[in-house]
Amino acid sequence: MSHGSVELVWHLLQVLHEVMQSKASELRKLMDAGAQEWKEKYSIECERRRKLHNLVQELKGNIRVYCRVRPMTDAEAANGCCISFPAPDEIKINNPELGVTKSWQFNEIYRQNSKQEDLFSGIRDLVVSMLDGYNVCMFAYGQTGSGKTFSMQGSADNPGVYTRTFNELFKVAKERSAWKIELKGACVEIYNEEIRDLLLGPNDKKQKLQVRQGKEGNHVPGLTLQPVNTVAEVEQLLNTAQANRTVASTDMNLHSSRSHLAVQILGTMTNPEGKQFSSAITLVDLAGSERLAKSGVSGDRQKEAIKINQSLSALGDVIAARAQKNAHTPYRNSVLTHFLQDSLGGDSKTLMLLQINPCASHVEESMCSLTFGARVNAVEMKKS
Fold first, then answer.
1. Which GO terms describe its molecular function (predicted)?
2. pLDDT tens per residue across all 384 residues of the chain
3. d(C-alpha 130, C-alpha 40), whole Å
């Protein structure tokens, strides 16, 4: 290449560089404008998806009732089964000795052969609702020994609602990479109408915990809230809570839970536009309802059973008041219902897992549970 050609190429490169510099500012403005436009469109679509998802959950019912029947042991099978399923969403009790035949319908019914993943498939969407800023609560209800703890906790090789919920929670949070999401965990038990912080060790200084009303809703001042960023960290909280939970042996269950266990994940979510949402998902393994004569408890165990039944009765009163659309809902009649107030009213999403023992010798307890479940199913949730 000749010297003149080299100079020409060099001159053209300089001209091109000057043109690019002169246009760089304009190009940056155009790119920034385009990015802002896409950011605004993304924000609009996120809000639209949030509203549509919430609408779907409302159409399914803000309080849903899922019924799960556990398998019988060989010893129970000798007494016969009192449960049948006339239709996919129908459960029936038939007991000739008592002259009882009655059917109930619920949102979902899981039979004796159902798997843990089957149950969670009907719960998964509620995790998204929590990250969208709605309070979510799921509580397992049923007589002592009906399988509540298995459904909620499961085992290492067959995890229950807790672990599956945590996995889904962090999975969805990770997918929302443009959001800022901060999560904290708490574990409490409600024992004899007292709130106990299960994340405190036996030698830790403990204060009396009470539910208080704040501008963001009910909360428990002084409760341990530990930041969690992984499923493993939440599992560690749960292991600590289980080690500190109150259990005892009764005639109905060798390891009967003597308190209500609540595992709560509280979240603060900020979308790309800076709009902030706060909400909580609360998973509750209720203490088992039991008849004193049948459980064979006495002394302290009897006092515990009485308190358990009173709190479950208070839960029934709250449900009944909402179903009848009473002007007053008696949340404060029990520490349990006061603690769950924000999850049982307003636009919260609540799911009741009704656990049933199908053995004929437990037909009366099963009937009471199914009747209670039907009352819950009748509640129409609206903003307070």
1. ATP binding; microtubule binding; microtubule motor activity
2. 565 565 666 666 676 666 666 666 666 666 666 655 555 554 555 555 445 444 444 544 458 899 999 999 998 998 899 999 999 889 999 887 777 789 999 999 999 999 999 999 989 989 889 999 999 999 999 988 899 989 999 998 999 999 999 999 999 999 998 899 999 999 999 988 999 999 987 677 677 899 998 887 888 999 999 999 999 999 999 899 888 887 543 433 333 457 899 999 999 999 888 899 999 999 999 988 655 445 444 556 677 878 888 898 898 888 888 777 788 899 999 999 999 998 887 778 889 999 999 999 889 899 989 998 988 887 765 544
3. 23
CATH T-level assignment (fold) for domain 62-377: Kinesin (3.40.850)
Its pTM stands at: 0.79
288 three-class SS: coil
Q: Which two tokens stand for residue 102?
A: 């009655």
92/37 Cα distance (integer angstroms) = 57
Annotated ligand binding at 116? The verdict is: no
Q: Parse the chain into domains and list their residue ranges.
A: 1-60, 62-377
Residues in CB range of 8: below 8 A, 6 or more apart: none
Q: Is 282 annotated as a binding residue?
A: no
Q: Is 145 known to sit in a ligand binding site?
A: yes
Is 144 annotated for ligand binding?
Answer: yes
**336 in Cβ contact with 190 (< 8 Å):** yes
Residues 6+ apart with CB under 8 A from 164: 116, 117, 120, 123
Cβ–Cβ < 8 Å for 241, 259: no
Element (H, E) at 75: helix 74-77
155 annotated as belonging to a binding site for a ligand: no
Consult the annotation and say whether 142 binds a ligand: yes
Length of the chain measured in residues? 384
Q: Per the structure block, which two tokens stand in for 164?
A: 């599956």
| Cα 32–chain centre separation | 41
